[in-house]
């Protein structure tokens, strides 16, 4: 019965049998049969089915609320038992945006595996936003808190950013003394799928919004960083990416008296995102706790 409830819970979270099947590693037809079996046991219809959508019936809504408690209690019980009898174990599927994954996360994975040898890590470096409720991912690392109330976010670090350029670019181009000067420079841009790109600056109580343009736009920061190192243009990027190049002198900070940001609210915070269960599975909790322990702010 508990296995059927888990399938039902995933169908509700995923929105359809196909996506639930992907998350559960089951064929959609098997998912449908499990739901049929559950409905037969309960003597109730849980879903209103149509060719376009799958909606909970009134009985389904009630059962979903009550069954969520059952699943949380079962996870808690299993966590307690595993905690008493051994270390966390299982497959841990992690999705992290490419640049942060390469620079900050992958160097930590060997230590994590040494600490928890019974955990197997599957790592995806991907700048696309994944849906934890429909894809088979346990933890996603992203900038910003998700809007989905079914997900929980644990803060890892503040995403401080700096405005930089290579000495070769600075020597060839006109000086950048104020944020407005950037309108006359080639700026290397993170893609936000907007027609116009703005960078934001703050100094004390003064705020400035500057329209910037450039000949290279990327979803990830790595291509922009390589271009900046070659003297292609001006770059606004996270300090955890820039730190070694600033220390070596390969990049120089520009207008340091201004705080540069990707949005009016700042350049964001980095979070570990996972499903909002009251009692996360032990290997998920171990990994998130490990990240909080190991990751420190740049500034």
From TrEMBL:
Statement: the UniProt record of this protein carries the keyword Transmembrane helix: no
Coiled coil ranges: none
InterPro entries reported for this sequence: LysR-type_TF_proteobact-type (IPR058163), LysR_HTH_N (IPR000847), LysR_subst-bd (IPR005119), WH-like_DNA-bd_sf (IPR036388), WH_DNA-bd_sf (IPR036390)
Entry keyword set: DNA-binding, Transcription, Transcription regulation
GO molecular function per UniProt: DNA binding; DNA-binding transcription factor activity
Protein name: LysR family transcriptional regulator
Keyword Transcription: yes
């Amino acid at each position: 019965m508990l296995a059927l409830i888990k399938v039902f819970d995933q169908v509700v979270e995923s929105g359809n049998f196909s996506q639930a099947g992907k998350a559960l590693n089951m064929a959609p037809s098997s998912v449908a049969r499990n739901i049929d079996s559950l409905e037969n046991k309960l003597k109730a219809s849980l879903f209103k089915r149509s060719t376009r959508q799958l909606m909970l019936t009134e009985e389904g809504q009630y059962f979903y609320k009550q069954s969520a408690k059952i699943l949380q209690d079962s996870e808690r019980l299993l966590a307690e038992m595993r905690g008493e009898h051994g270390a966390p174990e299982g497959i841990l599927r992690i999705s992290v945006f490419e640049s942060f994954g390469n620079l900050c996360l992958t160097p930590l994975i060997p230590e994590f595996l040494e600490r928890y040898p019974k955990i197997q890590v599957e790592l995806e470096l991907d700048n696309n936003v994944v849906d934890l409720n429909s894809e088979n991912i346990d933890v996603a690392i992203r900038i910003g808190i998700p809007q989905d109330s079914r997900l929980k976010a644990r803060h890892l670090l503040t995403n401080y950013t700096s405005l930089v350029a290579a000495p070769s670019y600075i020597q060839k181009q006109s000086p950048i003394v104020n944020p407005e000067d950037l309108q006359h420079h080639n700026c290397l841009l993170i893609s936000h799928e907007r027609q116009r790109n703005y960078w934001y600056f703050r100094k004390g109580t003064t705020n400035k919004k500057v329209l910037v343009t450039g000949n290279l736009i990327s979803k990830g920061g790595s291509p922009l960083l390589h271009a900046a190192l070659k003297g292609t243009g001006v770059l606004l990027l996270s300090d955890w990416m820039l730190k070694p190049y600033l220390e070596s002198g390969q990049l120089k900070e520009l207008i340091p008296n201004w705080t540069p940001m990707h949005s009016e609210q700042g350049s964001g915070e980095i979070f570990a995102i996972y499903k909002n269960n009251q009692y996360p599975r032990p290997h998920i909790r171990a990994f998130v706790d490990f990240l909080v322990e190991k990751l420190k702010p740049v500034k």
